[in-house]
């Protein structure tokens, strides 16, 4: 057998480079867009009239446009959005919950997704034919999703099929990936998972093949595999910049779990030292982290859960309890605000929002709403029919697993 090995030049996603641009020790108050652009970020250009408006002016403008549009537009806000966006959201939640909710609003012709690009794509795939999806800032990507570009993923799948043979490996992709990657899963007997359904979906995959390749978050994949009893030496990392992902054919044949080398720039900031510090400062503190954190952190945490699980668990916790949380700062601040009878803090002392979620500045929301109210659609997110069809198949498998 002759293998064609494709080697890529390393690229660092733009979103990853910008991650620290808004890390601060100050509160995250929204400034006029012109001020935020001074951090040197490459965000979508807006008409000049929007970039100088302050938070109060933007609030008035967004409120006015929303009144004009009424039920024709629904605004979705991901948990990691800043407060100045969440105040306008009809619904808030994680990406999957929001997409499902949007599809259940038949009166809404336009779904304005205040989140990142892959979420708007998922909403497009799951929404009804008469609906359209708008992403207020087209530069709001996701560094993790950007680490698994379509070409690299297709090359990897071809290589694995060549080395292992058909039916020997099942693709499982985390929701945080492009519609193209979701479609690759749908086309090849694979499935999508969320951070709360990763165990069940990976188990589903092992009922169908001896190996799984998990895209694009190595940490969620590793944490899930270890929890299921897969040994570290049964896992290999697939580095898209190396031939065969940096593995020999023998290593791939021996592996049970192949982990795509991607990560979340936000959740990999959490460390064991931060957990130790929290325990020294607050004896009896409950540590809860997201499963996109590195395994060393997950191992020392008291609880591990998705964003929705973090919100639920702390809301149900006893009065006076103390929570050190390892997830995005806007969500942690909101949980702290909504649970005044508990002490809730972020494990990372530096205030470091998800740089891509942060790109949905209220000026962008004001602009897309004003345009809609004037009968113009800007920043519509589309997904090709064929891609949507297979992405839906992979998402449906996830729903069927429950
Ligand atoms: S928190 Fe991480 S995974 Fe989520 S959108 Fe931001 S970079 Fe992507």
SSE layout:
Blueprint: H1 14-17, H2 33-37, H3 48-51, H4 55-69, E1 73-78, H5 83-86, E2 91-93, H6 95-103, E3 110-114, H7 117-126, E4 132-134, H8 143-146, H9 150-164, E5 169-174, H10 179-187, E6 191-193, H11 198-206, E7 211-215, H12 218-227, E8 235-238, H13 249-254, E9 257-260, H14 272-281, E10 286-289, H15 295-300, E11 303-304, H16 307-315, E12 322-326, H17 329-338, E13 343-346, H18 362-373, H19 385-401
Parallel strand pairs: 1-2, 1-3, 3-4, 5-6, 5-7, 7-9, 8-9, 10-11, 10-12, 12-13
Helix pairs in contact: 4-18, 6-7, 7-19, 10-19
The chain binds iron/sulfur cluster.
Written overview of the protein:
The protein is α/β, with parallel strands linked by helices and 402 residues long. Helix content is 42%, strand content 13%. The protein has 19 helices and 13 strands. The chain is globular and about 60 Å long. 48% of the residues are buried. Mean pLDDT is 92; it is low at 1-7. The structure holds iron/sulfur cluster (SF4). Iron/sulfur cluster is lined by residues 80, 116, 142-144, 176, 264-266, 328, 354, 356-357. Residues 80, 116, 142-144, 176, 264-266, 328, 354, 356-357 line the site of iron/sulfur cluster (SF4).
According to CATH, the homologous superfamily of the largest domain is: NadA-like
Structural class: alpha/beta
Bound molecules: iron/sulfur cluster
Structural domains: how many: 3
**What's the β-strand tally?**
13
Question: Which whole number gives the mean pLDDT?
Answer: 92
**Count of helical stretches:** 19
- Architecture per CATH nomenclature, i.e. the level-2 architecture of the largest domain: 3-Layer(aba) Sandwich
Cα-atom radius of gyration: 21 Å
Shape: globular
Distance between the termini: 40 Å
């Amino acid at each position: 057998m002759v293998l064609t090995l494709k080697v890529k030049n390393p690229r660092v996603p733009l979103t990853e480079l910008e991650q620290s641009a808004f890390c601060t020790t100050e509160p995250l108050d929204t400034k006029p867009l012109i001020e935020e652009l001074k951090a040197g970020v490459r965000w979508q250009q807006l008409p000049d009239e929007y970039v100088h408006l302050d938070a109060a002016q933007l609030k008035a403008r967004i409120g006015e446009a929303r009144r004009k549009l009424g039920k024709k537009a629904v605004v979705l806000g991901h948990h990691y959005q800043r407060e100045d966006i969440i105040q306008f959201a009809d619904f808030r939640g994680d990406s999957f919950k929001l997409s499902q909710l949007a599809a259940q609003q038949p009166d809404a012709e336009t779904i304005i997704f205040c989140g990142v690009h892959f979420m708007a794509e998922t909403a497009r795939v799951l929404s009804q034919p008469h609906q359209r999806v708008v992403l207020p800032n087209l530069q709001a990507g996701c560094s993790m999703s950007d680490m698994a570009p379509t070409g690299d993923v297709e090359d990897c799948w071809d290589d694995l099929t060549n080395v292992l043979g058909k039916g020997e490996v099942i693709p499982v992709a985390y929701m945080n990936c492009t519609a193209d990657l979701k479609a690759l899963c749908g086309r090849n007997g694979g499935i999508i998972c969320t951070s709360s359904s990763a165990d069940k979906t990976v188990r589903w995959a092992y009922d169908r093949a001896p190996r799984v390749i998990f895209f694009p978050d190595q940490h969620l994949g590793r944490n899930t595999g270890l929890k299921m009893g897969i040994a570290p030496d049964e896992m290999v990392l697939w580095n898209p910049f190396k031939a065969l992902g940096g593995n020999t054919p023998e290593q791939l044949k021996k592996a049970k779990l192949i982990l795509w080398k991607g990560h979340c720039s936000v959740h990999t900031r959490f460390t064991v030292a931060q957990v130790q510090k929290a325990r020294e400062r607050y004896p009896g503190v409950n540590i809860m982290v997201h499963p996109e954190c590195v395994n060393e952190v997950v191992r020392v945490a008291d609880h591990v859960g998705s964003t929705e699980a973090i919100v639920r668990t702390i809301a149900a916790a006893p009065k006076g309890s103390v929570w050190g949380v390892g997830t995005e700062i806007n969500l942690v601040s909101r949980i702290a605000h909504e649970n005044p009878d508990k002490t809730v803090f972020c494990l990372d002392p530096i205030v470091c929002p998800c740089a891509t979620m942060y790109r949905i500045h209220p000026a962008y929301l004001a602009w897309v709403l004003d345009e809609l109210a004037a009968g113009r659609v800007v920043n519509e997110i589309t997904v090709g029919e064929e891609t949507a069809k297979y992405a839906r198949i992979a998402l449906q498998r996830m729903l069927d697993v429950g």
